[in-house]
Write a structure and sequence with these properties.
Keywords: Cell membrane, Membrane. It is a peripheral membrane protein. Belongs to the MELT/VEPH family. The structure is a single chain. The strands form 3 sheets. The protein has a 7-stranded antiparallel sheet. The chain has a 3-stranded antiparallel sheet with strand order 1-2-3, with helices on one face. It is built from 38 helices and 12 strands. The protein is of the alpha+beta class. Among the domains are: 1-120; 121-188, no CATH class; 535-668, no CATH class; 671-797, Pleckstrin-homology domain (PH domain)/Phosphotyrosine-binding domain (PTB) (PH-domain like), CATH 2.30.29.30. It is flat.
């Protein structure tokens, strides 16, 4: 062991401990394991809990050792000794006692070692030793340690999920005990230990309402994986999952999982179909999922099929085109499974018209006939009338029609050769017969077939009529337009009914999904924005940029009043947010609340927002109109998160909502009486005592009380507690880069009394008397910094 380490650890010499930092890392690298073993002996001694000197020596030595390990990249060499010391902490109390929330001595050791070990989560040899120990820390009652472990274990689950899989039970129990951060681990370990998680699936799904939004997404991901791989395991949880559909942030993902469950266990969804219909009615974007669940339930029996068909057919004639293929897919699967529902004439009905409304009308009529037949108590079901059975004419016409049927059949067979239809053998088990792509192909084929068939049937009808009057019709030629007009009698009238008789903007917007949504919710949006704008400011500018963690919104806020002492007359308050979608939605609602008519996608302001939206989306993702119409207003939880972010960047120190002006004004424009005082030469904005941290090592708690004065462009402070003592070098506010509250996970338990001031050359850590004084100092410093920057901007503008 190095001589200095031997002296400091052997003699518990605190006076020389700081000298360890003057040694080169390479000079002590060989003896680090020995030093760790010696620290383990000291920390396990009976008097360690009461010996402040020994605790200080150990704390400094651990910091020096972990620094050397990181700098020399020797974690694998010293991992055994490091994990050994770490594990020894488990033999001691780690839980803070009573009102004193400060970590116990061994909790401090464990905390200092944790990051050094677990930040090497991609190193297998280290993780093999560390993971079993880390999992044991989860159950020791120290929330701070548990949170740190959870964060690193989540990263380890991404890199080496196999190492965590054998600890799935302990991790799951920790999650159920309230350590929700570990939820992100469960989707990674589930494929390797599904049975373990299956045992706790009921309790896990029951946690949903207790979780924050990010944690809910991890649980949702787990539910989705279970639904994909073992959907039957979720069938007992269907009532719970359906109860969460009211939370619009979860609806789409949960419906996707329920679709998977319905394929494996359709009976578990039977009693929830009415609730699902309400969900689809409230948000038509989810109709596809609800239709698939109805189709799966309908396979159970003919009775269930009939009930599902009635619902699906009712949608076919009223929903927009994007859902038609899904609805036809489900309808065909059911009518193929139970042909008697339509009297065996499903194919003919599909081919009688290219209008989905007409198809829906015909299907609905057949289902009504089926219901009426059942009500008559066993009477035979009438055969489906052929679309050309009522053609007039004698036997010649019938014979001609029969010959035509042969030609039609030949034509259909030929079309079948061009696009082969998938055939599934009859089976007693529920199954799906058509894929979506096959349904689309068949629809296109039948449209072409229908065109030819319509022409032929019209020829039969014409020839039959003419044979009655004795005319020879062999040379008659028919135009395509006339034939199609006979086949689709309702198409023209339907289009007429859909033609709006309103103003020009309504004409533009009638087919505009966003226009319709905004028109129907104008009052709701106006009421929402009236309250929202007093809590969340509307950005003056927004730009979308890529970052290593995805797209971010670069937002700018300024003061609209721009008074004499305005903080943001020539500059802006800038914010980077990882929630661009939410900001875009808020800006849309604000624009609509200011407009007396519904906005539409052709409006220039909407096109600008749509352009921003498209920059945040992957190819093939939701369109702007689709996304903006999913929810009328954002969820309360999302708005709360925005407020928290604005608080973290100290926005509310610098801006306040003015009811008189109806907008967010800067501190000076909101408080002109203070602006006058502050801008008097030498007049302090705030002054008083603060504690400054003296030692460069953050783990040593050594504070000195100083007297600070905030005036003009400087933060002045004295060497002593009196304002009459000599000045140190002042802090130039124009050089301050940021001011932040010290993170709560630090050792200073009086937080948030402490805050940091970052300049281009130094960081100052200061602590106020209490939280109230800390808030006052933070606001005044932020205002003064903004004022200094604005003054520089004005001077630069004047110079230019």
């Amino acid at each position: 062991m190095h001589q200095l380490f031997s002296q400091v650890l052997g003699q518990r010499d605190l006076s020389r401990a700081g000298d360890l930092f003057s040694l080169e890392d390479a000079e002590i690298e060989d003896c680090l394991s020995q030093a760790l073993d010696q620290i383990k002996v000291i920390s396990c001694s009976p008097d360690y809990l009461t010996n402040d000197n020994d605790q200080a020596v150990v704390e400094i030595c651990i910091t020096r050792i972990t620094t050397a390990i990181r700098e020399t990249g020797s974690i694998e060499r010293h991992s055994t000794a490091l994990v050994g010391l770490w594990e020894s902490c488990l033999e001691h109390n780690l839980t803070p006692q009573g009102e004193n929330t400060e970590d116990t001595p061994h909790a401090k050791i464990a905390s200092d070692i944790t990051s050094c070990i677990l930040q090497n989560y991609s190193c297998p040899s280290v993780m093999v030793l560390a993971v079993p120990v880390a999992v044991r820390f989860l159950q020791r009652g120290n929330r701070e340690l548990s949170r740190n472990m959870s964060s690193y274990l989540s990263l380890a689950a991404i890199a080496k999920a196999d190492l965590l899989a054998e600890h799935t039970e302990a991790i799951t129990i920790s999650v159920l005990g309230g350590n929700h951060m570990l939820l992100r681990v469960l989707p990674s370990v589930y494929p390797r230990q599904p049975d373990t998680i299956h045992r706790h699936l009921g309790n896990l799904t029951a946690m949903m309402s207790q979780l924050e939004s990010p944690e809910q997404q991890h649980l949702i991901r787990l539910i989705q994986i279970v639904a994909e791989q073992h959907p039957l395991m979720l069938s007992p949880q269907v009532p719970t999952l359906v109860s969460y559909l009211g939370d619009q942030s979860l609806t789409e993902a949960l419906l996707g999982a329920l679709v998977d469950v319905s394929q494996a266990s359709p009976s578990s969804l039977v009693s929830f179909l009415p609730a699902l219909r309400i969900v689809a009615q409230q948000c038509p974007a989810f109709l596809g999922h609800v239709a698939k669940i109805h189709g799966a339930v309908g396979i159970i029996s003919e009775t269930h099929a009939h009930s599902s068909l009635v619902y699906l057919v009712s949608l076919l004639g009223s929903m927009e085109h994007s859902f038609h293929h899904t609805l036809l897919l489900e309808i065909r699967a059911l009518t193929d499974r139970y042909p008697s529902l339509l009297g065996g004439c499903g194919k003919d009905i599909y081919r009688m018209s290219n209008s989905f409304t007409a198809i829906a009308r015909l299907l609905g009529r057949r289902l009504e006939e089926k219901t009426a037949t059942h009500c008559r108590g066993g009477e035979s079901v009438a055969a489906c009338p052929s679309p050309h059975a009522a053609l007039p004419g004698g036997g010649g016409g019938v014979a001609l029609e029969q010959r035509l049927q042969v030609k039609i059949q030949a034509f259909e067979e030929k079309m079948g050769e061009e696009e082969e239809e998938e055939v599934v053998e009859d089976s007693p088990a529920p199954q799906r017969r058509y894929s979506l792509s096959q349904a689309v192909r068949e629809e296109r084929r039948e449209m072409r077939f229908n065109r030819s068939k319509s022409l032929a049937l019209h020829a039969v009808r014409s020839r039959s009529i003419n044979s009655d009057t004795g005319e020879d019709c062999e040379g008659v030629e028919l135009s395509t337009e006339n034939a199609l007009s006979n086949t689709l009698p309702n198409q023209h009238s339907e289009n007429q009914e859909a033609s709006p008789m309103e103003g020009e903007k309504v004409e533009q917007g009638e087919a505009d999904r966003l226009f319709i949504h905004l028109r129907e919710n104008m009052e709701t949006i106006r009421g929402f924005c009236k309250d929202m704008v007093q809590q969340i400011p509307i950005p003056e500018q927004c730009a979308i940029e890529d970052s290593h963690r995805g797209c971010v919104a670069k937002l700018s806020f300024s003061c609209p009043l721009k008074g004499l002492y305005c903080l943001y007359a020539k500059s802006s308050f800038n914010l980077t947010s990882r929630q661009p979608h939410l900001w875009i939605h808020i800006m849309l609602l604000h624009l609509q609340s200011k407009s007396s008519v519904p906005l539409c996608t052709k409006d220039e302001c909407i096109q600008r927002l749509a352009s921003l939206w498209e920059k945040t989306q992957l190819k093939g993702a939701h369109s702007f109109s689709m996304a903006m119409t999913q929810h009328t207003t954002p969820h309360r939880k999302d708005l709360d998160n925005l407020q928290i972010q604005l608080e973290e960047v100290r926005f509310f120190d610098l801006f306040g909502y003015s009811e008189e002006e109806g907008g967010w004004l800067c501190f000076m424009c909101n408080n002109p009486e203070k602006a006058t005082v502050v801008n008097q030469e030498g007049q302090p904005l705030i002054e008083g005592k603060l504690k400054e941290k003296q030692v460069r090592w953050k783990f040593i708690k050594r504070w000195k009380t100083r007297y600070f004065t905030l005036a003009g462009n400087q933060l002045l402070f004295r060497r002593g507690k009196s304002k009459d003592e000599l000045d140190d070098i002042p802090i130039e506010l124009s050089k301050v880069q940021s001011v932040k509250v010290v993170a709560k996970k630090r050792r200073d338990r009086g937080l948030p009394r402490a805050f940091e001031i970052f300049t281009d050359s130094k960081t100052y850590v200061l602590k106020a008397q209490d939280e109230k004084h800390a808030e006052e100092w933070l606001q005044c410093i932020n205002v003064a910094v903004a004022q200094a920057r604005e003054r520089e901007n004005r001077e630069a503008t004047t110079y230019l």
